[in-house]
Amino acid sequence: METDRLLRELSNFLRIPSVSTLPEHNADCRAAADWVAAELRRLDCRDVQFLGSEMHPVVWGVGPDVPGAPTLLIYGHYDVQPPDPLGEWTSPPFEPTVRRGRLYARGAADDKGQVFCLLKAIEACGRPPVNLRFLIEGEEEYGSTVLFEVLEREPERTRADVVLVADMSYVAPGWPAVYTTLRGMCYAEITVRTAKSDLHSGEYGGAAPNAHEELCRLLARLKTPDGRIHIPGLYDTVKPPSRAERATWKRLPFKEKEFLKERVQAKALTGMKKYSVLERLWALPTFEIHGITGGFTGDGAKTVIPAEATAKVSLRLVPAQTLKTVQRQLAGAVKRLAPNYADATVRFLHGADPAEIEVTHPSYQLLDRAFKAVVGRGTVAARAGGSIPVVPALGKSGAPVILTGIGLPDDRLHAPDEKLDLTQLWDGIRVFRRFYELLGHKGA
After folding, report:
1. What pLDDT, on a 0 to 100 scale, did the predictor assign at position 176?
2. Contact 348, 424 (CB under 8 A)
3. What Å distances lie between residue 345 and 220, 232, 273, 342, CA to CA?
4. How far apart are CA 417 and CA 84, in angstroms?
5. Which of 47, 64, 206, 245 counts the highest number of beta carbons within 10 A?
6. 2 is catalytic
7. Ordered domains of the chain (ranges, CATH)
8. Where are the beta strands (DSSP E) in 307-371?
9. Do 136 and 48 contact (CB within 8 A), yes or no?
10. What's this model's pTM, rounded to 2 decimal places?
11. How, if at all, do strands 102-104 and 304-305 pair?
């Protein structure tokens, strides 16, 4: 394997700051799409197209014909999260840097490095042993709106025998996984307005309502320190993990103290203590505050009582919950918990239902064999705490969706110093090459 060349090519991909949530990076997203399209053409793909958008297109491609072989649809995304806070990166987020066998850059593991891994595994095959289709999108980190619109108009794009999504991680070093659930997402802005305009804190302080204070009180009512979310009806449909799942989770090499020290890197874990950490991560809904704006936040001082404040929040949803229901529940809770002298509104930005995935199709056994052959251990079935909004739509044609990946739990996705262990990448190329070969030989 020409690792120097591969590292150089991946670094070129990672240098493109394809942040889909920020309009100033629209041209960068298009540049990343161009990079993907060029790679598909290098793999002798035909019918390479940009679908749905000029700036955040879905890159579609069709591999060479392999008569009699099954069709594999490969999904991934070339967009990345914003790199903020920049000061917490050891090296610049869009200047890929190798330290101690790890490649640091935004998108290294989520998901450019994994898309790269799947493409280079095809290259390693020489001629693909299966019929290939590609849907590589540019808005996964912002709700997948373009791809949803494409698939609504052209659902035939998902017709395949197997769908492969590599956007996940091992459950622990040396423990590859396939995932049986993805949590859904409800992302919103909660805005509180308490007056017509900002006020002088000297003239009005002590008497005028403060939008930041009222917003903070409202947020504190929505989730209390014990970790319980006080949104009526939210937990009504939540189902506990099965006995079999709990037994599997207990066998995983998960250590709470190590999780706190090495991955969370905080002084304590929070949440509902009567549930295990894995249950809190995988089987329960969450409510998180991502940012608060309003009033004055610039350098220096300005003595102002803010008239309006906004919080960006999200809820992660578990199987049996639905986005529409949770949106209604959140809007109702905000209205009920806000003081009557403040106007509180909810604006929903994006979201998706949770996904449940059966892992009984023969293709899962082939992936298990591929991992065993390369890394010495097969896959374990696990749940995922994160969300990939389009996964349910990818399986609407009836094809099994394989949700797996080559990342590690400490890859710091969405955080400063995101990284990908190079050993994982080189092994991953071998694993997926072997999977393609097994799928082409055995059929789906």
Report:
1. 98
2. no
3. 16, 17, 31, 10
4. 11
5. 245
6. no
7. 3-182+354-442 (3.40.630.10), 184-238+285-352 (3.30.70.360)
8. 308-317, 343-352, 355-356
9. no
10. 0.91
11. unpaired
Q: HSE-up of 136 (CA within 13 Å, CB side)?
A: 33
pLDDT at 443: 47
pLDDT digit string, tens, across residues 240-282: 999 999 999 999 999 999 999 999 999 999 999 999 999 999 9
Which member of 39, 79, 141, 214 is catalytic? 79
Question: Which string of DSSP letters, residue by residue, matches 168-235?
Answer: -B-SBTTB-EEEEEE-EEEEEEEEEE-SSS-EEHHHHTTTS--HHHHHHHHHHHHB-TTS-B--TTTT
pLDDT band at 66 (very low <50, low <70, confident <90, very high): very high
| Stretch 352-360: mean pLDDT | 94
- What mean pLDDT is predicted for residues 115-131? 97
Residues in the chain, how many?
444
280-289 confidence digits (pLDDT tens): 999 999 999 9
Q: Which of 28, 139, 140, 214 is catalytic?
A: 140
140 is catalytic: yes
The alpha carbons of the chain give a radius of gyration, in whole angstroms, of: 23
Which residue matches tokens 């491609």? 61
